[in-house]
Design a protein that fits this description.
CATH class of the largest domain in chain A: Alpha Beta
Radius of gyration of chain A: 25 Å
Helix content of chain B: 25-40%
Strand content of chain A: 5-15%
Strand order of the largest sheet of chain A: 9-16-15-14-13-12-11-10
CATH superfamily of the largest domain in chain A: Aldolase class I
Largest sheet of chain B: 8 strands, parallel
Shape of chain B: globular
Distance between the termini of chain B: 42 Å
Shape of chain A: globular
Strand content of chain B: 5-15%
Number of strands of chain A: 17
Strand order of the largest sheet of chain B: 6-16-15-13-12-9-8-7
CATH superfamily of one domain in chain B: Aldolase class I
Largest sheet of chain A: 8 strands, parallel
Distance between the termini of chain A: 53 Å
Number of domains of chain A: 2
Structural class of chain A: alpha/beta
Number of helices of chain B: 16
Helix content of chain A: 25-40%
Largest interface: A-B, 73 and 107 residues
CATH topology of one domain in chain B: TIM Barrel
Structural class of chain B: alpha/beta
Oligomer: heterodimer
Radius of gyration of chain B: 24 Å
CATH architecture of one domain in chain B: Alpha-Beta Barrel
Chain lengths: 469, 522
């Protein structure tokens, strides 16, 4: 049996005080000073931890909020002096897409590398927009493909990037012809360039290390890469340079050590692919297409060229179409492109990488079900470093996560933990679906249920036409 | 057609020998106040130091918010949960207006923001507590919006189209809320339960002893059932045998021939709505001495019930299992609990073909002691779709009247129960609402450390002492009574004399997001 893909992890506690959802406000006035005070009975020992925290406080900008919201002390206090409140700092984190709950769960995974588990039923909305408007399927009792919780080690999350010959020709029992280069990643995830506001000097090495730890590939702007580093050998196979039209090409000997390169869609795509292949015939070249109003059409057209082997479609950070008034969501654009490629008969010639708005591990699985071969991760890796997504990353503004001070081991470790947790959760979803191959998940919409379809089949049949929002 | 036989004729000799006297619990409604000192209410009453303790407020308030105990110098803290808030302003018994010193203030309770979630809103939790306390629906003046949650879909957007006047005037006692669980004519007992719901499976291990026994004795009082879950059959549960469903799940924890023979219904758990396709998982912390003994397992290690049954990969295999149980217990009805995949309708029909009496579909938003968040949110469809799908398919196959369809996974109130039945279920299984009646706040921490801080879903010896069986039983009996009243009210408004007549009556429902003119669409 080949060696199993396994990401080594270890718990890495946060550097900054946790921003919890709840806090308890204590109106000390009128306290009866009971000797069996409810604070002593806190199951989580929160009050003692809070006073320890305050005693050792060196930094006054962070309050202590680690209450779990069980209301026990609030309801048992003799004088009713305690009041539970929702932490305004928590509520203020992120934005409408990157909700505080997403940030919190990402922190937890980056700390523990574990799958988040909780009790009680799901408490969220019935459905939502984007990826929340679909459910993944499970197999009940009658599918021979699945083999239960003990069979998870047999689930493969590997995917291939590059062109696969659609058929083989044999001569005298041996396959003949040219085989285009093909690279395999152990899970359907690529680390995308970090958004512009995170231009921190230490970030590059951290991301490179995380890519090496997880055996994945990180896309880099070559201007951020110190080519002379001694440890090139170790990291270059885990790096893909992004070359926009103006970017100088990296030195040939550096390029030859990489497996994937990405170029901007600048009108000279075919010549550039040719040129890169002439430098390094075994490199796989991806074309990055920004998903503006013309993006999907451009991706479909470009897939028709024989030279193009990989297309990376990128929506904005929230997964929306770029620069339009009523933007479409990445999920729908993936489906559109995937379906069009099938109709053109080119789907199996092209590897489709999709990115933008991939915030949770289920988004990875759902984007693949919608038709992407693999997805990119960007902001979640920054959140792993305890970023609050406060969007105030200007010089002189205090960063609540103190990102400028990160230690490389801490940073790479947290990112590695997060990716490991995502990998485990992808296996959970695939296990429930009865899928043993991430490659086979691509475009298999039969393993998903879409809100619109279920609504129409059920309530549309019973109650007429759905009102527009 | 097989003739039905008496239980004594079909019970195996060893079961008869080991039978213990069965508990009798009266269906009596008694107040069961909160076990916490400060019950949370929708409003808070503030009393300032201006108060001269004249007692005027206590005199005017008919709800008992203000308590001045004789012999005390000051007023006790106001009983906020009894206050009806600003609605009181228009009455002549508004304490704020009556106070000669203006020392009183009534405001919204800011804590409700931290209570509950989209599915279980703060109002719904507080209303369920009130029902468990009084045995009646909360009076209208409290302004609690408890019929629906705030999830924005499914049950929360479905409403009943009540006619202005019922087509037939019926008295409460003319309305029958019972359902039959055995619709097959196979000679097995025709078990009838008085209300169209029974308690869901919660294993000893996931919840405390006290919780399980409270559920069981409330089930006796209401002539319905509770389920052991898969953590084994406690000896202390024996006096409730006739109202217990025992579960055979993939881990087979605590399943013995003898436990199968004790009960009138045996449930096969294929999957659970909160973690479909993943199996059960009791975290090591909860595997205490008593749990380990019951499950015949090693102390402190995580216990998995794998998914699926490794001996069931087809309907024929399923049938083999059912035959095995039917042979061991000749009076038992068989229930099959399955989750809601896209082909749930096929699974239900297959289960019927295999000989099951009850097909129990558990939707994606169901409760659990511990499940990966990714599974709870994403895997399998919500129950609202599944009920309609299965009901329709069973009808099309012509077997609808030979099988009982039970739905669960997000049934929170009497209105949800009625809506589920109107969509096509015969009855429902409830779980979370019983725990809320016992004081759950849905903090979702059932699984961690010592378990539930409120002492409900825990096996910690100290925490589980926070509650006793008598109180727990009364709370659940009261909740059932409130639901029963409400259900009768719904049937009365439609002029339906039995809950069976409501089944599949989607014409009585409307959806707030639809045009509700299906005829025009056709």
């Amino acid at each position: 049996m080949p060696e199993k893909y396994h990401i080594k992890t270890q718990p890495i506690p946060p550097r900054r005080p946790r921003v919890g959802k709840y806090g308890v406000v204590d109106w000390r006035e009128d306290c009866a000073r009971c000797h069996n005070c409810v604070k002593k009975a806190c199951v989580y020992d929160r009050y003692r931890m809070e006073s320890d925290y305050i005693r050792n406080l060196t930094d006054v900008d962070a309050l202590y909020f680690d209450c779990r919201g069980c209301f026990s002390c609030v309801q048992d206090c003799t004088k009713g002096l305690l009041c539970l409140s929702v932490n305004p700092v928590y509520e203020g984190m992120g934005n409408r897409y990157w909700t505080p709950d997403i940030i919190k769960t990402t922190w937890l995974q980056a700390e523990t590398a574990k799958i988040p588990v909780s009790g009680a039923g799901y408490g969220g909305p019935f459905t939502g927009t984007g990826f929340d408007a679909m459910w993944t399927d499970m197999s009940e009792i009658v599918r021979p493909t699945r083999d239960g919780i003990h069979g998870r080690e047999y689930i493969s999350t590997s995917v291939d990037i590059g062109r696969k010959p659609s058929f083989l020709v044999f001569e005298e029992g041996k396959p003949t012809g040219v085989f285009p280069p093909l690279l395999s990643l152990p899970m359907p995830l690529i680390i995308d360039m970090s958004p512009a506001q995170y231009s921190l000097p230490d970030l590059g090495p951290v991301i490179r290390q995380a890519a090496a730890n997880t055996d994945l590939i990180a896309i880099f702007d070559p201007s951020d890469w110190p080519f002379q580093q001694a440890d090139q050998q170790r990291y270059l196979p885990h790096v893909a340079f992004y070359l926009d039209s103006a970017a100088p090409e990296p030195p040939k000997e550096v390029l030859r050590k990489t497996r994937l390169v990405e170029i901007a869609d600048d009108g000279k795509v075919l010549e550039r692919i040719k040129k890169l292949k002439s430098i390094h015939p075994d490199i796989v070249v991806a074309v990055r297409i920004e998903l503006d109003a013309k993006g999907p059409r451009r991706a479909i057209d470009l897939a028709g060229f024989e030279e193009v082997e990989v297309i990376h479609i990128a929506a904005d950070l929230n997964g929306n179409e770029i620069g339009t008034k009523n933007p479409r969501f990445i999920k729908d654009m993936i489906r559109e492109i995937h379906t069009a490629l099938i109709e053109d008969g080119t789907r199996d010639d092209i590897t489709l990488i999709a990115g933008g708005g991939i915030a949770l591990p289920e988004h990875m699985a759902k984007a693949i079900i919608c038709g992407a071969d693999l997805v990119t991760i960007d902001l979640p890796l920054m959140i792993a470093l305890e970023c609050h997504l406060c969007d105030r990353c200007e010089p002189g503004m205090p960063c609540p996560a103190k990102l400028e001070d990160i230690d490389p081991d801490y940073g790479a470790g947290r990112m590695t933990n997060l990716i490991a947790a995502w990998h485990d959760q992808l296996i959970e979803l695939m296990g429930a679906m009865g899928m043993r191959e991430a490659r086979r998940l691509r475009g298999d919409v039969g393993r998903a249920m879409f809100f619109e379809d279920l609504e129409e089949e059920t309530f549309g049949r019973l109650f007429g036409t759905r009102k527009k929002n | 057609m097989v003739q039905e036989r008496k239980i004594e004729e079909i019970l195996p000799a060893n079961t008869l020998r080991t039978r213990v006297p069965q508990a009798e619990v009266p269906r009596e409604i008694k107040p069961a106040p909160s076990r916490f000192r400060n019950e949370i209410g929708k409003y808070v009453v503030h009393r300032s130091s201006e108060c001269i303790r004249c007692g005027k407020c206590a005199e005017v308030c008919p709800y008992g918010v203000h308590v001045f105990k004789p012999g005390y110098k000051y007023f006790a803290s106001p009983k906020n949960h009894l206050c009806i808030g600003p609605a009181c302003e228009k009455t002549d018994h508004y304490c704020v207006a009556s106070c000669p010193k203006g020392a009183l203030k009534v405001a919204d309770n800011p804590m409700t923001e931290g209570l509950g979630d989209y599915r279980w809103t703060a109002d719904m939790i507080m209303a369920t507590w009130k029902m468990a306390q009084t045995g009646d629906v909360p009076p209208e003046e409290y302004g609690l919006q408890y019929q629906c949650g705030d999830s924005g879909g499914g049950f929360d957007r479905l409403m009943f189209k009540f006619p202005d006047k019922p087509p037939v005037e019926l008295d409460e006692d003319q309305i029958d809320t019972s359902i039959e669980l055995n619709k097959r004519n196979d000679g097995r007992p025709k078990i009838k339960i008085d209300v169209p719901w029974y308690g869901g499976g919660m294993s000893f291990g996931s919840v405390s002893n006290v919780t399980q026994l409270s559920k069981a004795s409330a089930a006796v009082a209401w002539n319905t059932f509770t389920c052991t879950g898969e953590g084994g059959y406690m000896e202390r549960m024996r006096p409730y045998d006739d109202h217990v469903i025992t579960q055979v799940a993939t881990g087979l924890f605590g399943v013995r021939e003898e436990t199968i023979q004790r009960v009138p219904i045996v449930e096969f758990k294929y999957a659970q709505g909160a973690k479909p396709g993943l199996g059960g998982h009791l975290l090591g912390d909860k595997n205490t001495v008593s749990v380990a003994r019951m499950r015949e397992a090693v102390l402190g290690i995580s216990l998995f019930s794998p998914f699926p049954f490794h001996s069931v990969y087809s309907i024929e295999d399923h049938m083999k299992h059912i035959d095995w149980i039917k042979h061991i217990n000749k009076r038992a009805l068989i229930a099959s609990k399955v989750s809601t995949p896209t082909d749930v309708d096929m699974v239900a029909v297959g289960s019927y073909a295999a000989g099951t009496h009850i097909v129990h579909i558990d939707g994606g938003y169901g409760g659990t002691g511990a499940a990966p968040n990714i599974a709870k949110k994403n895997i399998a469809m919500p129950i609202e779709y599944a009920i309609d799908k299965v009901h329709g398919f069973l009808e099309a196959e012509g077997v609808r009247d030979e099988i009982t369809l039970i739905a669960s996974g997000g049934i929170r109130t009497a209105h949800d129960i009625a809506k589920a039945i109107a969509l096509g279920a015969d009855g429902v299984v409830v779980g979370t609402s019983e725990l809320v009646a016992l004081g759950c706040v849905r903090c979702t921490r059932c699984e961690s450390g010592r378990g539930c801080p409120r002492g409900i879903a825990t096996t910690d010896p100290v925490l589980s002492k926070k509650m006793d069986i008598e109180w727990g039983t009364q709370r659940i009996i009261n909740l059932y009574n409130a639901w029963h009243k409400e259900l009768i009210g719904i049937l009365q408004k439609f002029g339906l004399s039995s809950v069976g007549q409501l089944r599949g009556r989607t014409d009585l429902l409307m959806h707030l997001d639809y045009s509700n003119d299906v005829e025009a669409k056709r």
